[in-house]
Amino acid sequence: MAKRPFRFGVQHQSLTLEDWREHIKRSEDIGFDILFMQDHFVPQMAPLLALTYAASVSSRLRLGTLVLDNDLRHPAMVAKEAATLDVLSGGRLELGLGAGWMMVDYDGTGIPFDPPATRFQRMKETAAIVKGYFTAPEKLTYAGRLYQIKDLDTSPKPVQTPHPPILIGGRQKSMLSLAAREADIVSISMLDRRGPDLPKPPTFAEKVSWVREAAGARLDALEIHVNASNIQVTDDARGAIEALSQRLGLTPEEALLSPANLIGSVDEIVERMHQWREETGLSFYNISTRALTPGVAQVVAKASGK
């Protein structure tokens, strides 16, 4: 797997114009590479509209969805809106797609939460349709099990060629294998279910092995991404790791097997990131503004682009 420079994304939930504008400017000042938005029916703005506004405020930040819930939109509309955002941002979109998982989105909208096999098939077809829309000369025809498209106009075309980077996220082998075959960025989730009656969840390294196996010849073209959901700059790394382990129901050793958990001084965290990159190819981290302390900002400044 190719060794890539570190990139950092920042994710924020906002409800007001003032807060969103301030977040965009702060993210740019700190040195983040990309502004991410999730896609849920929780207190937040609609992602594609909010990112379109962000494109007018920042001329540097890239703009990403982490990730669009595939069940909430028809893939042809996803492709058209994504291409439009790429045009309006001058080619800065990174399109994240996911099969959907948060039950509040389904309970609130009444959209059926279909069995995993159905949602996976829908995700496969969406990836094909979106990429087809981006790259078809003028019209797109697609005949799948769940979607049928005939002579669909595929304008506008995105600025980025052959298309904006596509990120597919997941935690299970089937979805990560699909991402390895179809995406440009593979987002590896560590939110595995745990419990006394459940098998021990796979490690991050095991999940990367699934990606390598499925990617084949395209392995070096892939970027590996993770949510740094537990990043903490502290002088008491031992105490912080023990507290985190208790909260997650893990041993300290198990907690350190995930790059989602980065705890220590600025130098210690950056050193561990280098180790993760050497061992797994991981180079792309997402950080929530809930974890964005001055120390974490120093981590971004020290490692970004290196």
The CATH architecture term is Alpha-Beta Barrel
Overall form = globular
| Approximate strand percentage | 15-25%
Mean pLDDT: 96
Helix percent band: 40-55%
Question: What is the CATH C-level name?
Answer: Alpha Beta
N-to-C terminal Cα separation, in Å?
Answer: 17 Å
H/E order of the elements?
EHEHEEHEHHEEEHEHEEHHEHEH
Fill in the keyword field for this structure.
globular; 306 residues; eight-stranded parallel barrel; alpha/beta; two-stranded antiparallel sheet; 11 helices; single chain; TIM Barrel
In short:
This protein has about 300 residues and is α/β, with parallel strands linked by helices. The chain has helices at about 15-30, 45-55, 75-90, 105-110, 115-135, 175-180, 205-215, 235-250, 250-255, 265-280, 295-305; strands at about 5-10, 35, 60-65, 70, 95-100, 140-145, 150-155, 165-170, 185-190, 225, 230-235, 260-265, 280-290.
